[in-house]
Amino acid sequence: MNSQSQSQSQSQRRKNFKIEAFKHKVELDPKYAERTWKVLEHAIHEIYNNNASRLSFEELYRSAYNMVLHKYGDKLYSGLVATMTAHLNKIAKSVESAQGGLFLEKLNHKWADHNKALQMIRDILMYMDRSYVPTSHKTPVHELGLNLWRDHIIHSPNIQARLQDTLLDLVQRERTGDVINRGLMRNITKMLMDLGSSVYQDDFEKPFLDVSASFYSGESQQFIECCDCGSYLKKAERRLNEEMERVSHYLDAKTEVKITSAVEREMIANHMQRLVHMDNSGLVNMLIDDKYDDLSRMYSLFKRVPEGLSTIRDVMTSYLRERGRVLVTDTERLKDPVEFVQCLLNEKDKHDKIISTAFNNDKTFQNALNSSFEYFINLNNRSPEFISLYLDDKLRKGLKGASEEEVEVVLDKVMMLFRYLQEKDVFEKYYKQHLAKRLLSGKTVSDDAERSMIVKLKTECGYQFTSKLEGMFTDMKTSEDTMLDFYAKQSAELGDGPTLAVQILTTGSWPTQLTAACNLPPEILTVCEKFRTYYLGTHSGRRLTWQTNMGTADIKATFGKGHKHELNVSTYQMCVLMLFNSADGLTYREIEQATEIPALDLKRCLQSLACVKGKNVLRKEPMSKDISEEDVFYFNDKFTSKFVKVKIGTVVAQKESEPEKQETRQRVEEDRKPQIEAAIVRIMKSRRVLDHNSIVAEVTKQLQSRFLPNPVVIKKRIESLIEREFLERDKADRKLYRYLA
Amino acid sequence: MASRDRVRFNVGGQLFETTSTTLANAGRESMLGALLDESWNPGQPEYFIDRNPACFSTLLDLLRTGALHIPSNVPEKLLYREALYYGLLDHVRGAKWGPFDGNTLRLADSVPGRAPGDGTAIRGAPDGGCCVAHGSVVHVYNWMLEERRPISLDYQQVNDVGYIDANSIVITARERLGKGDGGMAVFSAATGELRHRFRVEHGRQPKSFTAGALSLAGLDDHRIFSSCKGRLNEYGIGVWDHNTGQQVDFFYEHPGCSLGDADKLQWLPSKNCLMVATLFPRTDNCFIGLLDLRDKSIPWCWSDAGITMNLEDKRVLHAIAMEDGHSICVINQYDDLGFIDLRAGNTNSAGTGVRWSSRSKLMNQKVPYEESCYPKLATHNGQLFSCMNDSISVFSGSEHVLTSTLRRSYGGSICDFSIGGDRLFALHNEENVFDVWDSPPCPII
């Protein structure tokens, strides 16, 4: 056929031979385009009708190529649009007619068909896509196919609303527990996404979010009326997880943020205050009952919404402050300092654990906890004393047998409380007193623990804070060496008199004590004098004063029936007991006269000798708990004990009594004065001129690591410095101070 | 199994046998890929294709080996046309030249122009095409070096051109007094159509302007920068988003640093700054500065103002920021390269800070030619390129050693050159000829 027609046209041309004018373009048979298009149109129909197997790809491709090559691209393109539109309208009818639940199935099925057809049509028209489409600003075939599907199927008036309702209804059914065909849902949402993110958003996502928000608004209202806080949070968490799971199964990943934020808003943000403050199950109850799971859930849920964590934090802070305030002002608790501090430590441990297990170790929560402790610990001005007493207790006996690590843990915890203290200098005062007592009585559990504590204080507060404390340790060591030397040199002279152990304390390093020397028994006095001669002989220019109130003595006593006991007593007690070597009964006044022990100490010492069961080496008349000045004391001949060594402790005042407290306070205040003055001078020296408020602020800043200076005191110190001509007031502006070099 | 893989073609009467594995190299988005796709009745004993067998043979060989060998009897343009039919044009382009290396460049082509005036600029497209600005018209060539429709912006003097992508060319043009024309616009490289005209607003008022040097931020950053001169002293750097076409920022000129007249803009992603260079002879005093657009500051700048200059003194004629972002390379009229350290803080002190190399002695050219063009600089993959007179020098390595020189016998001195799409394009001053240099594909062994 082909060769025949060719020869025909050749013969025709030969007949009408003429020279034609040169044409730029060879005109094609105008019917050729129409014919070629018919072939292609037919192919498109066949593709949509699943009859593609009879088509020749090569022929169709070449046809489309030829149409484009011969400038029939417009015809090809508009023909494609028209043909495809016609098919899609047919598809729309068929989808519309689908009954009830088959609607989505049908749509999905047709969508798959359309995609397959589109792919094949694009194959045929590939050349058009590559050359005609870009130069004529048309939409590429694939995109065109999607756009037409969107306009004629998805946005068809009979489909659009029905599709949306069907999808939303399925989601709603799944939320209420039904099982739905997730694969079908995924295909349909994927179709919407393929049609462009705006189609997905407008036709599904927006209404989905609206419906979800109102659903959760209603549900949360219902939950909050009938659930306690813990189970409400559980429900909210479950709903949140469900929505995330839904997104992962059949929605666009970008929807996750939107739907979760809707759930968060409706279920959490809108009910936050009510949840936190819920009666009997709110945040405070969870804290009290250590409900780690509930707290952790609340944390992770609230973290998702704005202001969520700060809501938790605020409630926790005010609860902690109130609880702490009650704790530190509870007069019952104040009776036992060790118990008091232990209570604080327990409180700290409890909430540390809550923050670490339930609140993800959140820094802001830790800060809130710290600031709460700082707030209430300083509400009680005895806190520094009590903390030192707690340490004293631990270092005396509490840590006996504890491993090094355990000791460190306890000390670190106490240091934590120490950090909260504003009046660190007050703590230092007490710590020094308590340390001195421990060292002198040899009661300290472990030297290592003591030194470790000093190191901690040093790292916390610097060298000057601990220099005196360290001096005390040095004194102890030197004393030991001195005593060895004394006995080595003087043993011949001393004979078998009482053994003396002297601790030489540097004045200033140790807490200053009123040196109310008592009258020592003559036997002791002789040895003491010998030591004094020895010591002053080896160290010139020193002065020795006996601190009899701080010593101890071991004495041997024989009671009735020849019972022998070794008594471990204080120096004061020894002085008293020695009197009974020469007398059986003595009145209080006689004892006081003979020993000259200060009344308060004497009463305490007599009390411990006569009134403690099992240790009553003296007998008192009348028998009573308290010592009065009319009492008479007798050597208790009937004293027995199953121990050979009997330790007679002094009834030590654990806490300071009110007057002592006043005294300590006064001493602290006195010590602060030079520190405040030094700070003022330092500041003024560098600033030269400064107004009152700035000085107060700067001084407070400089000193706050040790204590919080009172502005009134600062003002007084400034006035004193003006009097002493370190500073002067500015002539013009009375608020300004000048530094006088 | 082996026979199943085999595919027979009858192309224009000539038989070919190949395998579907070989044809898979064509990709699904090609005619051959679609032909063998399972949606089209595959497994036929023989496929007929009504096309030129010689070209098919060449293209099949390309699919088999990845290398392009055009027999002498096949005209190149014919092969391109056939490749377009099969959808294999990108394969051909990819096999025509290899990865760019300044030291292996060969002259691929010389394309004569017909423009009346001096060339202004030449720019390489990302796909290996190029465009040449001559006076008020930009001639556009695809990678096959076929000329497309020339483009112009109201037939105004073109100041700079650039490719946003292979199909979008942005040009900047001068504004004619009182006409409100010129400015800056994007054109389609394929059709030459005007796509979008960029506007400048000052105080919410749209104003006409003269756009000068161009720079694109590149990659995911859609910003495009141009130096701008408005009528009412609205001098500075305009910033647009080429995705939206909207103006996003304007950096008004600070006193003492000339921005609206800049010769060269370059975005430095590592510093988040725009380098602006305004150089001799446009100004008497060279200014190079880095602009921080976020806070409208100039964190670094350099100037040679204040040094008494006579004509023999070394003057900075072109500048380019090095790819490492640590220094700016400059060039003078003696073809000396110099470096200014960007890390040395603000070296505002007049004219100091340039470390000149002494290459001028090496080149032994004390006085430049009478008919010379100003030298230009470019960088690519760690190599530095400079043009001076009729040759381009290639410097390699961290010490910038001179490693190659590219020179053509005719065309006169080079007025501009550009690297793009793994090709180097050099525009000559006389006869408007431009040369295309590229690296050969990797050798067989």
TrEMBL record, chain A:
Entry annotated with the keyword Transport: no
Cullin family profile domain residues: 382-610
InterPro entries: Cullin (IPR045093), Cullin-like_AB (IPR059120), Cullin_homology (IPR016158), Cullin_homology_sf (IPR036317), Cullin_N (IPR001373), Cullin_neddylation_domain (IPR019559), Cullin_repeat-like_dom_sf (IPR016159), WH-like_DNA-bd_sf (IPR036388)
Gene3D superfamilies xrefs: Cullin Repeats, Cullin, Chain C, Domain 2, Winged helix-like DNA-binding domain superfamily/Winged helix DNA-binding domain
One Pfam family hit: Cullin
GO BP term, pick one: ubiquitin-dependent protein catabolic process
GO molecular function: ubiquitin protein ligase binding
Keywords, comma-separated and alphabetical: Isopeptide bond, Ubl conjugation, Ubl conjugation pathway
Superkingdom of this protein's organism: Eukaryota
Similarity comment text for this entry: Belongs to the cullin family.
Protein name: Cullin family protein
Origin species: Rhynchospora pubera
UniProtKB/TrEMBL annotation, chain B:
Domain of life: Eukaryota
InterPro entries attached to this UniProt entry: Beta_prop_At2g24240, BTB/POZ_dom, SKP1/BTB/POZ_sf, T1-type_BTB, WD40/YVTN_repeat-like_dom_sf, WD40_repeat_dom_sf
Pathway, per record: Protein modification; protein ubiquitination
Protein known as: BTB/POZ domain-containing protein
All residue ranges annotated as the BTB domain in the record: 5-104
Pfam families given in the database record: Beta_prop_At2g24240, BTB_2
GO biological process, one term: protein homooligomerization
Organism: Rhynchospora pubera
